[in-house]
Structures are given as C-alpha cells and as structure tokens.
C-alpha cells in the first residue's frame, strides 16, 4: 500500500496523547505506511518537506528545540498538503475557530480531516454546510472531497456521533437526545449535589474552586459555567439529527455565571465574588431534594418539537442521570425503534487519552475507506 | 457507481424487518444501486438469475407464492453469488450453524457477509480463525477477501462490537467486560427480583411462564435458561478482546435448568416441573436482598485473568446492572484508559427492528468500504 500522510496541528494535552497513540498504532500496523509530515504548534513546527516522513520517537524534544515556524495557515499549509504524493489526513488537535473555518478548502482539495475541535461543526450553519458540501462523506461523495470525522467533538472517545449517525442512516427516527455532556459540569454537580445529599456543607463556589484545583475546569472556569461548551455539543447533535440549528447561541442556554459577575475582569475576581451567590444555588438544590431529586446541568434536544436547550434540571435520584459518577458523561437517545427505554452511552467524556482515542478512531475510519 | 448486489437468507422476524429497512435505505440512497438478487427461506426463494434485481415492494407476497426452491447451499449459492458482475453482500438473517460454517468459503470468494447469526463467531475457534483469515478486515486484507461484520450478534443494534473493536484498535487495554447480555434474562430477573423487592409474590416459574407468554423467551424457554445464548455472546467478546476461547462451553456457565429437569421431554413438561424448584431461586433472591442487593444473570470476562463466566450474581441496588429496566441489556467496558468508571452501553438488546438495524448498519459499513 502506498503511504498515508498525516499532518498534525496542535501538540498540547490531546495532541501529545494522540501522537503517542498514533506512533503505537503505526508500529502495530506497519503495512499502512503511516507517514507524519507535519507536527505544528503556534510558533514552531516539524516539517518533512520532501514527504519522507518525521520520526515519532523523539518528536516532543525535536519540537521543543525546533525553530522553524509552521507553514502559514491556510494557504501554505494547504499547498504543502495538497502536493503530497498520496492521501493526506489533517489532524486538527486545536480548538481554533480560524483553523476550523478553513476545513471546506482542505476537504475540497481532497484532504481528509479528523478532529476533536468543536468549532467547525458548532459555529454558523454556513460553515457546517460548507464542510459537508465539500466532504466525501457529505455531498461531495462522487467528487474528490476528503472525509471528515469529529467523533471526539462530543463525549471524547465515547461512541456518540457514530451511534447517532447509524441510527439516522438506518432510518430510525430520533425523538429526543438528553444527557450530561460536560465532564466539568458532571463533576461539579456530582460533588455539589451528590445522591447522598451530604456534600460536607460545601457551597457551590467552593465546589467550583475545588474542580478548578483538580484540573476539571478550563483555566478560567467561566468558560465552563457559561454553558457554551455544552451548547456547542448540542448544536452538533441537533444538526446530525436533522435540525438546522443556525448557531450555538440560537437556543436557550442557562449560564451559571450570575449576571452581577458578568463584568468581572478576571477569573480571580469572578471566583472571589461567586460565594455571594451560593444561597441561590443552595436553594435550587434544596428544592430538588424536597421532591427526592437532584439538580444536574444537562442539554436536551427534542427533534419533533425542534427544541434545543441547555441548563439546570431536576432528576429523580433513581434516574441514570442522577446516578452518574465522577466526571462521567451520559447520553440517552430516545428513538422510534428503541421506544420508551433509550439507547444510552455513558463514561468519561473528557481527558487527553480518551479524546485522543476518539481522534485516532476517526483516523482509522478514514484509513479503512481509502 | 456500479451496482451493489445483496443476497438475503432468512425471512423470519429479523429478515422481514431487515428487508423493509433495506428497501427504505435503498430508496433514500438511489445512487448506490442496491440490487437484491436473492431472498430465500428454507423451502422457497426469490431469485434474479440475470442479476437485474428483485423488486422489494411486494417481496413478502411474492415469496409466499413462490415455488422455486433456494439454490443449494453452499455450492450453488456460492456459484450464483460469485458470478455476479459486481460486489455482493450476503446477509445471513438465520441462526443456522451450517450456513455460518460456510462463511470462510464465501469470504475467500470476495463475498461480503453481514449477519446477526452468532454461530459463526461463537462456535469452534477453528471456524472463527477460518472466517478471520479469509476476511478482508481480517488477515486477507491484501487479497480479495470479503468484509465480515456481525454487530447484531451481541446486543442487537447497540454499538457493542464496534465499540470494543475501536478500543482494541486504538490500543486501549481491555481489563474486564461485564453485563446483562440477554433480553430474556433481563426481563426475567427484573420481574422476579425487582429493585422494589416486591414482585407481587410471583415465584420464578411463574415469571418464566409470563415471559414466554409475552414473547420474551424462545419457543422453548430452556434455550434461554441454559445460558448458552449468553455464553455465545461472551465467547465473541472474549475473542475480540484477544482471548482465544476454544468454544462457547469451555468456561463455567450456570444453567437455570434444574438438573432434575434436564431430561424433560418437552417445554411443557419442563414448565410443569419448574415450580417445584421455586424455593431454591427464592432463597437466592432473599439472601441477596438481606445485603441490599438483587440477583441478575450476567456474563463477564476478565482479560487479565483470562476468565470468562456466565451465571447469577448479586448486585448492589444502586448499581447500573441492578437498575436496568424491562428487557434492556447493559454492557460495561473496563479499560486502562477509562479507569475506574467503565464505558457503558445500554438499551434494548433484542427485537426484530433493532436487530435488523444492526445488520443494516453493517451493510452500510461494507458499502462505505467498497
């Protein structure tokens, strides 16, 4: 088999885990001739200008000492990749919207894309349409479009998008999708409002600080608490279910940032002010407990009613959503064929290793279709 | 695109649902040129000898009035299929071991196979090896082998095998797989030993009769109660996890057929005798309740210890397995990457529509790889 060229943008947590998994996959499958030709981060890059391939054995130290800037994006990168003497898979391990907005150009040039980056699929519907009209597994099936897969954009390595796609492709009717889509929100409410009811007297603000210290939140926890991450995931699920949601903010999203703190100038200032609002959140928790329930931060989409929403809801303590542990995600698909009891996928929905696994799984899907 | 030929063996519950879903898929995707050339049941068949294709609009009544016998299996069928002027997908919707034992021949001839039939993958390890050494997605990747997919052989349409394969292919280490793998056993124990503890005083035998009347068991409930169906599913999961289990009876299987009733000459005689053993099962249930648990019929495989087993176990009432509803299946994958909290897939694991969906999903996988 001829070589399969791989270009990797982003070498942070997920990128590192991905490259390590790719190196191992490549050595287990030598006949595939996986050939890395680009590993780039914002300022520097490793490039194999003659397409002979980069070694993955010392890539991290090689990149640390590299001085070559990455090829300009998109023009030079596109030129370099589309001149490769064989199929190219572009792995975008960033969360960069500018990179995502160039996917249509890369796909049109026959370059395949696998990515955990939500931006391309959850921003404007125009970008979504641009991507899927250029992709071979979209409207460009008979042209020279590249394949695009983004399993890890929802639920990391959990089989969420592949399951949804198969339900739709085989003709099932999606009625509702509901779940906990954020590891941060899962951890936060599992600690603030545990099934036992007793969290040791911690207020909501204290739980946020703890989650941040344990690495469960973004560096600025407001990026989790504003609900936009969950809204982006719902946007992707809605679009794959046939609802042409125009943007990730075109439906109700309950932000957990108190309006009085929206103008806080830093994460520190925000966290300092947050305890003043503990009373409100404690009331919500206590109200739920009075009816045998717990509060959880969920996203849901009702395809029949064309409704998408993200926010806090109460769930009976016996429900699957209430029983979730740690930072796990849970996604329930209610469909015509599955009837009253949904098809459920559950497990870690964040973390470098499981996210990288979702990306590598997508790369394998491309390889199997070459 | 040239035509994709499809041959369907078996037109019972799953077969009927599959053909209906295929007809609908085909009309949604006319460019694929899905061309059915054979629909057969034991005595009669619809055949398109010139490969021009059968109409799926009246297939059921056409088959009901058909007098043509099916082509002899395997020789004539193989000849007919391998002479087709394009790719052929053989859909085996039977549970016939004789058909399954011919898969290697069909795969070697480049014919693709999709099936919910467990027999090919859960009988002798020699047959398994024969299948996977002939298959293109096995050791015959560079030859002209056909693809083989059998998602619906475990958990019907639930993404069980695809998830396991992706975990393995991306280099995760499977530690343990545990779950409820039988809709019958799920229903039976959810009614006999519900979470509430109160089943209205029904003994185990009465629950079996009720499950049979509601259509949850095989015509002869002993075919469920002997545990072999679950053992076959565990055999498949074990082999995909890298344990070369020699046969579906090469590990401990707890049969729920009392030894005194093993010689019963009919299902009726068996069901008549069963109430005499209600006391034993009630004791197991009561013992579990005393420690806040319920009994469930589960299968598990521990890859590190190379242990596979099937039988009754107690589960804490707060566990996912105990909380299962109706006839749902639940499958928990414990892996290195997922750590303490497993990746869980849950939902209906039996029924014609969801089984057919698993088969059609596999057919789509083949189509995407052509």
TrEMBL record, chains A, B:
- Which residue intervals define the domain Aspartate/homoserine dehydrogenase NAD-binding in the entry? 10-138
Q: Which Gene3D superfamilies match?
A: Dihydrodipicolinate Reductase, domain 2 (3.30.360.10), NAD(P)-binding Rossmann-like Domain (3.40.50.720)
Supply the enzyme class, top level: oxidoreductase
Alphabetical UniProt keywords: Amino-acid biosynthesis, Methionine biosynthesis, NADP, Oxidoreductase, Threonine biosynthesis
Indicate which residues the UniProt annotation says bind L-homoserine.
218
Q: What Pfam families would the database entry show? A: Homoserine_dh, NAD_binding_3
Q: Which residues form the active site?
A: 233
Query: Which cofactors, by name?
Result: a metal cation
Q: Which PROSITE patterns match?
A: HOMOSER_DHGENASE (PS01042)
Residues reported in the UniProt entry to bind NADP(+): 10-15
Q: Which domain of life is it from?
A: Eukaryota
GO biological process, alphabetically ordered? homoserine biosynthetic process; methionine biosynthetic process; threonine biosynthetic process
Its function, per the record, reads: Catalyzes the conversion of L-aspartate-beta-semialdehyde (L-Asa) to L-homoserine (L-Hse), the third step in the biosynthesis of amino acids that derive from aspartate (the aspartate family of amino acids), including methioinine and threonine, the latter of which is a precursor to isoleucine; production of homoserine leads to a branch-point in the pathway as it can either be O-phosphorylated for processing to threonine, or O-acylated for processing to methionine.
What protein does this entry describe? Homoserine dehydrogenase
Organism, as annotated: Ascodesmis nigricans
């Amino acid at each position: 088999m001829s070589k399969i060229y791989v270009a990797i943008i982003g070498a942070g947590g997920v990128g590192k885990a991905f490259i390590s998994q790719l190196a191992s996959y490549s050595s287990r499958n030598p006949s595939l001739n996986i050939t890395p030709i680009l590993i780039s981060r914002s300022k520097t890059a490793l490039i194999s200008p003659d397409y002979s391939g980069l070694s993955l054995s010392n890539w991290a130290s090689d990149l640390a000492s590299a001085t070559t800037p990455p090829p300009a994006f998109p023009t030079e990168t596109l030129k370099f990749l589309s001149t490769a003497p064989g199929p190219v898979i572009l792995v975008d391990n960033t969360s960069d919207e500018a990179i995502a907005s160039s996917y249509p150009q890369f796909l049109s040039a026959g370059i395949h894309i696998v990515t955990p980056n939500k931006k391309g699929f959850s921003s404007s519907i125009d970008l979504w349409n641009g991507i899927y009209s250029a992709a071979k597994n979209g409207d460009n099936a008979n042209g020279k479009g590249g394949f695009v897969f983004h399993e890890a954009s929802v639920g990391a390595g959990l089989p969420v998008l592949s399951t949804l796609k198969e339900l739709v492709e085989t003709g099932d009717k999606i009625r509702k999708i509901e779940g906990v889509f954020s590891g941060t929100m899962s951890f936060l409410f599992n600690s603030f409002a545990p099934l036992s009811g007793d969290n040791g007297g911690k207020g909501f603000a204290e739980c946020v600080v703890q989650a941040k210290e344990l690495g469960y939140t973004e560096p600025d926890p407001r990026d989790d608490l504003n609900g936009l991450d969950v809204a982006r995931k719902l946007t992707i699920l809605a679009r794959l279910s046939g609802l042409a949601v125009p943007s990730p903010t075109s439906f109700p999203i309950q932000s957990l940032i108190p309006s009085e703190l929206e103008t806080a100038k830093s994460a520190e200032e925000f966290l300092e002010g947050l305890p003043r609002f503990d009373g409100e959140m404690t009331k919500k928790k206590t109200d739920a407990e009075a009816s045998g329930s717990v509060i959880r931060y969920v996203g849901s989409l009702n395809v029949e009613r064309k409704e998408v929403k993200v926010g806090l809801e109460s769930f009976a303590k016996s429900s699957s959503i209430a029983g979730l542990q740690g930072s796990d995600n849970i996604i329930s698909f209610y469909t015509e064929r599955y009837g009253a009891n949904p098809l459920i996928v559950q497990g870690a929905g964040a973390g470098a290793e499981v996210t990288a696994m979702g990306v590598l799984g997508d790369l394998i899907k491309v390889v199997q279709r070459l």
